[in-house]
Amino acid sequence: MYLHSLKLWNWRKFAQGPGGEPGIEVEFNDGLNVLVGENDSGKTAIIDAIKTILGTNSYDGNWVTEQDFYEGSLLLKIECVFRDLSPQEEAYFYEWLTILQELSELRIVMEAEIYEDINKQKKIRKSLKAGPEDLEIGLEDTVRQLLAVTYLKPLRDANTELSPGKRSRIAQVVKSLSDFADDSPEQERIISNFSHAFDELKKVLDEPVLSKIGTTVDEVL
């Protein structure tokens, strides 16, 4: 299956429309998708909305904060729709599926609300449901974990973040593959092989590429 669409209401810079329609709706292709836009155009907001509603299999937190609400709003909503489910995936998510004429889809909705508790302290409550519109039911944590995504933050320190270790980027990608069990010899071997390959690649590229980049940066500074 693949993520077919994303809708956002009052999420960061995307306000809810005057008629209750989402502030933005994005449709994705089955395969590679690239978001292109100027700074502060909402690209990061879209990515963060996906990882907030689906969760990640890395060590990143996915909490909703007051800064995630559009200015002046107390309620936000994120909706994801998955399509092209395999028979096995349809079996996993059967009670949450929306059955259409020629296809089935999995619709997931997360809502968050700012409220005041009995001590007048601002709190945020969040709900996660799935199913056809107006017929949503709660989505169990064990089922949601099947939807967790692998999120790789912007690369800042390649030497550290591409090195072996449980928190490295390579480890995060490998752990998301069902073929490699947690802490198995196969997992450790492939992570180590990736590290060795990057070290060898760095040696090959050092003089013709990396050193020239460094020289250019030094000249600019």
From TrEMBL:
It comes from the Bacteria. Pfam families: AAA_15 (PF13175). Residues 1-206 form the Endonuclease GajA/Old nuclease/RecF-like AAA domain. This is AAA family ATPase. It comes from Neobacillus pocheonensis.
